[in-house]
């Protein structure tokens, strides 16, 4: 506790031998961070530049990738500072802000994937109505709701946590996630109930909607010709791969707080790194390789770069 400024600092205790391997950690994380930004923004720029990619499906992909970069930027700069610092600490107010961004953007990813599933459903199952349903206004409303609904829910949870008394100033993690609840002296029943409601609205409902939508697509395409099945597989498979990957990592994040100290520190660190290393790079690779139009423009870009060099 800083008595002069009345700031409460929390120790991030999730690092493993950070003083011994600080330079190695720093180089690896900085390299990955640069790769994440470059890979994601390369595809975003391709979607922005090429007119044939100005369709709802590609706009939603661009939104998902931007969401991923912002989420990564919420964690990586602080991590890089911690690797080079003697003490890995963070103020409680900054910790809550990091918590807010981490979960609001994470929930937004579920909602964006749900919107993308709906877009594919309309495109494959109702192709004649697609232009009238997926208008620019509809796309804009979907994007706004995907970011605003989770932000409002997580903001309420943060406000509930601001004035709660802390009995523990050591966080078992390398950034502020739901482990911050273990810092409080008493658990709030109201906050717990609202937290469950938030998970249901921003994660469970979108997940069920996605599963329902893709089941409908599967049933309809099964009855259709081979070309329709091929188109459905090309556009739906990347979304499903991203959904499976993200759902597994979110399940880990929810479970880890329940296990508490029973989970080994090294294993906890490895799983946390999976969340912030693997998934932000997984999205652009999947969409870059599996989406035919994006892949085509990427090949052209690399060929032009080769020709220059």
From TrEMBL:
Keywords: Cell membrane, Disulfide bond, G-protein coupled receptor, Glycoprotein, Membrane, Olfaction, Receptor, Sensory transduction, Transducer, Transmembrane, Transmembrane helix. Residues 39-287 form the G-protein coupled receptors family 1 profile domain. The chain crosses the membrane at residues 23-49, 56-76, 96-118, 139-162, 193-215, 236-257, 269-289. Its main location: membrane. One of its GO terms (cellular component) is plasma membrane. The keyword Hydrolase does not apply. PROSITE patterns: G_PROTEIN_RECEP_F1_1, G_PROTEIN_RECEP_F1_2. One of its GO terms (molecular function) is olfactory receptor activity. Gene3D superfamilies: Rhodopsin 7-helix transmembrane proteins. Pfam families: 7tm_4 (PF13853). It is a multi-pass membrane protein. It is found in: Cell membrane. Belongs to the G-protein coupled receptor 1 family. This is Olfactory receptor. It comes from Lates calcarifer (Barramundi). The gene is LOC108891937.
């Amino acid at each position: 506790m800083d008595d002069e400024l009345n700031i409460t600092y929390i120790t991030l205790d999730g690092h493993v031998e950070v003083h011994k391997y600080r330079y190695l950690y720093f180089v690896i994380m900085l390299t990955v961070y640069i790769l994440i930004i470059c890979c994601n923004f390369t595809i975003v720029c391709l979607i922005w530049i090429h007119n044939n990619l100005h369709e709802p499906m590609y706009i939603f992909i661009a939104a998902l990738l931007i969401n991923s970069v912002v989420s990564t930027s919420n964690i990586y700069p602080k991590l890089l500072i911690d690797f080079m610092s003697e003490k890995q600490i963070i103020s409680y107010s900054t910790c809550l802000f990091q918590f807010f961004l981490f979960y609001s953007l994470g929930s937004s990813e579920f909602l964006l994937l749900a919107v993308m599933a709906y877009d594919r459903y309309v495109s494959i199952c109702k192709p004649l109505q697609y232009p009238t349903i997926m208008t620019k206004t509809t796309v804009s409303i979907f994007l706004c709701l995907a970011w605003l609904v989770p932000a409002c829910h997580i903001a309420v949870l943060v406000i509930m946590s601001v004035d709660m008394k802390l009995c523990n100033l050591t966080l078992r993690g390398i950034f502020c996630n739901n482990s911050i609840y273990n810092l409080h002296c008493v658990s709030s029943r109201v906050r717990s109930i609202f937290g469950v409601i938030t998970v249901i609205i921003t994660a469970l409902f979108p997940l069920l909607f996605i599963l329902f939508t893709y089941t409908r697509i599967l049933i309809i395409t099964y009855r259709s010709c081979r070309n329709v099945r091929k188109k459905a597989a090309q556009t739906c498979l990347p979304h499903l791969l991203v959904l499976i990957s993200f759902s597994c990592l979110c399940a880990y994040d929810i479970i880890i707080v329940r296990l508490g100290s029973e989970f080994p520190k090294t294993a906890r660190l490895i799983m946390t790194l999976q969340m912030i290393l693997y998934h932000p790079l997984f999205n652009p690779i999947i969409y870059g390789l599996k989406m035919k139009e994006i892949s085509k423009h990427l090949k052209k870009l690399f060929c032009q770069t080769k020709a220059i060099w």
